[in-house]
Amino acid sequence: GDIPFENTQYRGNVFPGLSWSAGPAGTKSYAVIMQDADALARGAPILHWTMFNIPATVTKLDSGMTSVPTGALNGPNIRGPNHAYMGPRTPAGPKHRYHFQVFALDTTLPSDSAMTYENMIAAMKGHVLASGEVIGLGQVAPAQ
Question: What Å distances lie between residue 17 and 42, 59, 65, CA to CA?
Answer without folding.
Answer: 28, 11, 7
